[in-house]
Design a protein that fits this description.
Length: 516
C-alpha cells in the first residue's frame, strides 16, 4: 500500500490531507514532549510541561473539528460517492479514517479533551507516588476524579457510537468493532478452558527439574546493553528510536521516525524483568517503526496503527510467544555468562531460564504473571471496569472485591494495595477499557504465530540462532506496513485465513505447557 504521487482530483480532499499533515506534525510534537516528560525533563518543568501538552491536544482537537475541516470532509465524501473510480484503496481508507477521527472528536468539548490529556500525563506521576507510599487514599481520590471524567466521556461516546452499553463504547477506543457480547463470549470460553488446564499444568510442572534461582547481581549497564542488542537483532532501528529507563511504568510512543520505548529502571537482582519489558516494548516499537511513513504519508490517518489489540499482539508475540520458546533461551544462555561475569552458573543455563520463564504459578502481580494465569488478571480487571463504568461499583468498593476475587480464583491474597488494586497505571491515566486488549492481543499473537510457523518453515532454528529479522520482516509485510487500510479483524482474517478466535491461544497454551 503506497499513496499515489499525483495530486488527487478532489480539491477538498487535498485540503484535508494538508490539514492532516499539520495535525500529524502537532501530534508528533505532543508525543515527543510526553516521552520527555517521563524521561529527561527536569522536575521544575512539571506544571508548565503539563500545560503545554494539554494545550497541544486542544489545538489538535480544534484543527480536527473546525468548520472548514467539516466542509472538506462532506465534499470529499460526496466526491467519493459520485466518482468512486477516482479513489484508490489508500485514499479511500484515508478518507474513512479521517471521518472516524472527526466523529470521535466532534462529540468532545475542548475542556474535556484537556482534562483527558492532563489525566493521561499526571496519572503516571500520581501512580508512582501512590506505589512508593502505598497510599490508597491518594489513589482513591485520583481514581474518583478519573472515574467521573471517564463516565462522562463514555456517555458521549455511547450516544455517537450507538453502543449497547457505556463500557462497550469505551472498548471501541482500543478494540474497534468488538461488541461487549462477543468479548464476554470469548472471555468465558477462555476462562472455562484455562481453569481446566491450570491444575494439569501445575501438576505436570511438579515433576520437572527444580528451578535454580537467580542469585547474582546483574550490572544495570550490561542489562541495558543486552536489551538493546536483542531489539537490534529483531530489527529495531536505533537511528530512528531509543530505549530508556525511568522510575515509571513502561510505555511506548513517538513516531515511526522517532520511536521512544520506556521501561522501568532495571532490577539488578533479576535481568529477566527488564528483558521482558524491553521485548514487550520492542514489539510495540517494531510496529511503530514499520508503519507507512515515506513521503510524509505517516501524517495521514490511514498510516496509523490498528489500535490497541493489534499493538498488544505485536508486543506479546515478541515478549510472550517468541521470547518464551526453548530456542530463544538456547540462543540467550551462552551469551549471558560473559556478559554478567560468571562461570558455570547453573541458574543461567537455557533449560533453567526456560523453566523459570514458563513456570505456571498464581501470583498477585499481573506483570509478573505467567502466560497462563495472566488471563485471570485481565478477567478481574475487565469485570471491575464493566461494573465501575456502568455505575454498579464505586472506586471505594474495588479493593475488597479485588482481594476476594484473587483469593477465590487464584488462591492468593494481596497484603497491601501496592500488591493489589494499585499495581497498574492504566486506570490512573484514564485508560478504562484497555485491559481486554491484552487478552485479545494475546489471541491475535497466537493466531499470527500459527500462520508464521507455516510461512517460515525454519522459524525455530532461526530463533535458536538469534536470527529474528525474518520474524519482523513477516510482521512488517503482513501487519505493520498496512497501516489502517482495513479493520484489524479483517486484516487478521486475510493474513491467517480465520476470523479472530480464542482457539489459537488455547492450543498454543496446551502445546507449550502440556505438549511434547
Ligand atoms: Zn503493551
Amino acid at each position: 500500500m503506497t499513496p499515489s504521487k499525483k495530486p488527487h482530483p478532489c480539491q477538498a480532499y487535498c485540503s484535508l490531507k494538508k490539514r492532516n499533515r499539520n495535525i500529524g506534525r502537532l501530534s508528533a510534537i505532543a508525543e515527543i514532549i510526553s516521552r520527555d516528560f517521563l524521561t529527561t525533563m527536569p522536575e521544575g518543568a512539571y506544571e508548565n510541561r503539563l500545560d503545554q501538552i494539554s494545550y497541544l491536544h486542544r489545538r489538535i482537537h480544534d484543527d480536527i473539528v473546525c468548520p472548514d475541516s467539516q466542509a472538506w470532509l462532506e465534499e470529499a465524501q460526496e466526491h467519493l460517492a459520485t466518482h468512486p473510480g477516482l479513489w484508490d484503496e489508500w485514499d479511500t481508507a484515508n478518507l474513512i479514517e479521517t471521518v472516524k477521527r472527526y466523529k470521535n472528536h466532534a462529540i468532545l468539548d475542548p475542556d474535556m479533551l484537556e482534562e483527558s490529556a492532563r489525566i493521561a500525563n499526571e496519572g503516571r506521576r500520581v501512580h508512582s507516588l501512590c506505589l512508593k507510599n502505598n497510599d490508597w487514599e491518594m489513589a482513591q481520590a485520583h481514581l474518583e476524579r478519573v472515574a467521573v471524567h471517564v463516565r462522562k466521556l463514555a456517555k458521549l461516546k455511547a450516544k455517537s457510537r450507538n453502543s449497547a452499553t457505556l463500557y462497550e463504547a469505551l472498548i471501541q477506543d482500543y478494540s474497534p468493532g468488538v461488541s461487549l457480547e462477543k468479548l464476554w463470549k470469548w472471555f468465558n470460553h477462555i476462562d472455562t478452558e484455562l481453569r481446566i488446564l491450570l491444575p494439569q499444568v501445575i501438576e505436570r510442572q511438579k515433576m520437572r527439574t527444580p528451578i535454580v534461582s537467580l542469585a547474582g547481581r546483574y550490572d544495570p549497564e550490561a542489562q541495558m546493553w543486552l536489551n538493546r542488542s536483542l531489539l537490534e537483532l529483531f530489527g529495531f532501528d536505533f537511528d530512528r528510536g531509543g530505549l530508556y529507563e525511568t522510575e515509571h511504568s513502561p510505555v511506548e510512543g513517538g513516531t515511526p521516525d522517532d520511536t521512544r520505548l520506556v521501561i522501568k529502571n532495571v532490577d539488578p537482582r533479576d535481568f529477566m524483568n527488564s528483558m521482558k519489558s524491553a521485548l514487550h516494548e520492542g514489539g510495540h516499537g517494531l510496529y511503530i517503526q514499520g508503519l507507512p511513513r515515506k513521503g510524509g504519508s505517516g501524517y495521514q490517518p490511514v498510516s496509523h496503527d490498528l489500535g490497541t489489540t493489534m499493538h498488544e499482539s505485536q508486543a506479546l508475540l515478541v515478549e510472550m510467544v517468541i521470547g518464551r520458546t526453548p530456542e530463544f533461551f538456547e540462543f540467550l544462555a551462552p551469551r549471558l555468562e560473559g556478559l554478567f561475569h560468571t562461570v558455570r552458573d547453573p541458574s543461567l543455563t537455557a533449560g533453567n531460564l526456560h523453566r523459570r520463564k514458563t513456570l505456571v504459578k498464581p501470583t498477585l502481580d499481573r506483570k509478573g504473571a505467567d502466560e497462563l494465569t495472566y488471563f485471570f488478571h485481565i478477567f478481574l480487571r475487565f469485570k471491575i471496569e464493566c461494573d465501575l463504568i456502568e455505575g454498579k461499583m464505586e472506586v471505594a468498593d474495588i479493593p475488597a472485591f479485588w482481594t476476594e476475587w484473587m483469593h477465590d480464583h487464584l488462591g492468593v491474597m494481596p497484603q497491601n494495595h501496592t500488591e493489589g488494586v494499585m499495581q497498574d497505571v492504566h486506570w490512573f491515566v484514564g485508560k478504562f477499557g484497555y485491559f481486554q486488549a491484552y487478552t485479545l492481543g494475546h489471541m491475535v499473537a497466537a493466531q499470527l504465530f500459527d500462520t508464521m510457523q507455516q510461512d517460515i518453515p525454519d522459524l525455530y532454528s532461526r530463533i535458536r540462532n538469534g536470527d529474528f529479522k525474518p520474524i519482523t520482516k513477516w510482521l512488517n509485510r503482513h501487519i505493520h506496513s498496512k497501516g489502517s487500510i482495513q479493520p484489524w479483524d479483517e486484516l487478521l482474517k486475510d493474513v491467517t485465513g480465520s476470523e479472530p478466535s480464542p482457539d489459537f491461544l488455547i492450543s498454543h497454551i496446551e502445546n507449550r505447557y502440556l505438549g511434547g
